């Protein structure tokens, strides 16, 4: 019995290692290798080790300005996102009122919109002919801040809201019974319990702001540049690969540090979290400030989208559908395909990217949630979890250009392969898929699997009856997230997409880059279509969401 038990454990460990090796190999080939090749160009610029080249790049005055611009805009946008997101997190996750699900979906949509669409929507709002044109914000850093907050406030709402859903009400009620005011209850009871989630959300928002690409590219133009857009400029326009690689190295080190911080904060146990979520309650008079702040946030999110939608049906001061009719054309001849064909290509690519990221994400989630008693096993799980989160923050521009210089010779000459774009987009979506599935799988009581096995169920039968019965809804939600992220991916895709089959975000950016009212209006109409498709997907995702899960 001992021998058979020992051989069974060895076989189980071997199967676990083999299972973990699949996503590790995929990420190593299609992420580590391209990013490593890009960085190699910076540290070995002329075929020899020269770390001084990195220091030379960092010593340039322009590099200093770019780094400072990235840091201060990301910091300010993070603070504003947290201040706007906290009241909305409370209202949408602790209170019950008609239309709550619709409001929650509306505030979540900006996060999965293509960054190019976000930039165009904000520009349409603040341009001289837009509703807020009188403020003179077009072409200023404030416009970029608006775009970053618009894009990231949903992260705070979702992350903090999920934590708020799980707080035990009894400590706050006890403090109130002892005479504490609502402000004192929040300061002494609620806020300390939420602090890990708030800091974690702020770290993720800062990460997303620092690696924002399309927002800064559209709103900043050539006057303002972040690290992400500077890497794009150095690679695509100036072909200064050593300088681009140096900035990529700095960005990667910062991203790894932030991911370590976020991982530690996520691991902090919160004694107030209960397994059974407290039910939402009806709003009371003391909730009016939070409700008003949430209404303000909803207006701030709705205004750019409304300005974009209205702009797409206005031409020369009159109502018109000319821009939507132009979707079947090629934008004054500057595109090889019609905008409609680009949308169909985006949908096909998104389907491929979704099944790829879903397959890998399910394996990763199973591997990192497998319970182990040894310290080595727990450390290995932590390392693997961090390893698969790396694509979340590494520059998509770095990844896309790395594909071109690393996958250009047999047996990995994939530059002409139609699977290259879906693979890149699947890697971008993989962290969100993993973060959606891990909390659900981790919450399954292992004794249920053991009970199924004791009743004679095979491992596959136990997996089907225990795990799949719980995870199918989050799995569909993860598929929706992956599909939406793929539809909007722009950074890596802009480098590797074939000219004869561009995605819709790439087409929108090309239309914006050429003068002419028809091109600009067609870009707006295409953005509205892409936003509508994304919003529909997210609406389905929210209906499938399991309460208490889904934080990023």
- Please, what is the average pLDDT? 79
Note poorly predicted spans. Answer: 268-276
Overall 3D form: globular
CATH architecture assignment name: Orthogonal Bundle
What are the secondary-structure elements, in order, as H or E? HHHHHHHHHHHHEEHHHHHHHHHH
Number of helices: 22
Give the distance, in angstroms, between the N- and C-terminal Cα atoms. Answer: 45 Å
> Class in CATH?
Mainly Alpha
Q: Which percent bin holds the helix content? A: over 70%
Number of strands: 2
In the CATH scheme, what's the topology name? MetI-like fold
What does this structure look like?
By secondary structure, this protein is mainly alpha-helical. It has one domain (20-37, 66-544): Orthogonal Bundle (MetI-like fold), CATH 1.10.3720. 73% of the residues lie in helices and 1% in strands. The chain has 22 helices and two strands. The protein has helices at 2-43, 52-58, 61-94, 100-112, 115-126, 141-165, 170-177, 182-210, 214-220, 227-237, 241-267, 288-311, 322-325, 339-368, 375-389, 396-406, 420-442, 446-454, 459-488, 493-496, 504-512, 517-544; strands at 314-315, 318-319. The chain has a two-stranded antiparallel sheet. The two termini are 45 Å apart. The relative contact order is 0.13. Mean pLDDT is 79; it is low at 268-276. InterPro entries: MetI-like (IPR000515), MetI-like_sf (IPR035906). One of its GO terms (biological process) is transmembrane transport. It is found in: Cell inner membrane; Cell membrane. This is Thiamin ABC transporter, transmembrane component. Belongs to the binding-protein-dependent transport system permease family.
């Amino acid at each position: 019995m001992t021998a058979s038990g020992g051989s069974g454990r060895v076989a189980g460990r071997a199967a676990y290692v083999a299972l973990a090796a699949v996503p590790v190999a995929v990420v190593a080939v299609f992420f580590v290798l391209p990013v490593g090749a890009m960085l190699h160009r910076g540290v070995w610029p002329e075929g020899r080790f020269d770390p001084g080249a990195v220091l030379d790049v960092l010593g340039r005055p322009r590099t200093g300005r770019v780094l400072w611009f990235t840091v201060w805009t990301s910091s300010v946008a993070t603070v504003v996102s947290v201040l706007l997101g906290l009241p909305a997190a409370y209202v949408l996750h602790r209170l019950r009122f008609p239309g709550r699900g619709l409001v929650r979906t509306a505030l979540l949509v900006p996060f999965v919109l293509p960054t190019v669409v976000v930039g165009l929507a904000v520009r349409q709002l603040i341009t001289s002919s837009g509703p807020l044109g009188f403020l003179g914000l077009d072409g200023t850093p404030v416009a970029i801040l608006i775009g970053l907050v618009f894009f990231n406030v949903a992260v705070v709402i979702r992350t903090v809201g999920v934590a708020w859903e799980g707080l035990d009400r009894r400590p706050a009620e006890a403090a109130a019974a002892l005479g504490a005011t609502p402000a004192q209850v929040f300061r002494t009871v609620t806020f300390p319990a939420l602090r890990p989630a708030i800091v974690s959300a702020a770290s993720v928002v800062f990460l997303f702001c620092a690696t924002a690409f399309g927002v800064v590219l559209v709103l900043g133009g050539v006057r303002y540049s972040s690290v992400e857009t500077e890497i794009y400029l150095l690679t695509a326009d100036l072909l200064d690969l050593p300088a681009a690689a140096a900035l990529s190295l700095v960005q990667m080190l910062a991203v790894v540090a932030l991911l370590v911080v976020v991982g530690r904060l996520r691991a902090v146990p919160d004694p107030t979290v209960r397994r059974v979520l407290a039910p939402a309650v009806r709003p009371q008079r003391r909730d009016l400030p939070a409700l008003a702040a949430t209404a303000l946030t909803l207006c701030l999110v709705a205004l750019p989208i409304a300005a974009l939608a209205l702009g797409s049906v206005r031409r020369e001061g009159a109502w018109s559908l000319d821009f939507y009719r132009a979707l079947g054309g090629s934008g004054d001849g500057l595109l090889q395909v019609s905008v409609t064909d680009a949308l169909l290509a985006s949908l096909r690519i998104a389907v491929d990217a979704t099944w790829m990221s879903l397959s890998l994400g399910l394996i990763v989630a199973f591997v990192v949630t497998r319970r182990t008693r040894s310290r080595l096993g727990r450390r290995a799980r932590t390392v693997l979890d961090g390893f698969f989160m790396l694509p979340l923050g590494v520059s998509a521009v770095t990844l896309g250009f790395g594909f071109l210089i690393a996958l250009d010779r047999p047996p990995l000459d994939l530059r002409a392969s139609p699977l290259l774009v879906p693979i890149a987009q699947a890697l971008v979506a993989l962290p969100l898929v993993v973060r959606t599935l891990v909390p659900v799988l981790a919450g399954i009581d292992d004794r249920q699997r053991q009970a199924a096995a004791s009743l004679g169920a095979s491992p596959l039968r136990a997996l089907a009856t225990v795990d799949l019965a719980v995870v199918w809804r989050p799995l569909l939600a993860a598929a929706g997230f992956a599909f939406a992220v793929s539809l909007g991916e722009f950074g890596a895709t802009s480098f590797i997409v074939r000219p004869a089959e561009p995605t819709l975000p790439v087409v929108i950016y090309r239309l914006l880059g050429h003068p002419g009212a028809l091109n600009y209006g067609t870009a707006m109409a295409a953005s509205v279509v892409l936003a509508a498709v994304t919003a529909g997907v997210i609406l389905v995702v929210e209906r499938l969401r399991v309460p208490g899960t889904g934080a990023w």
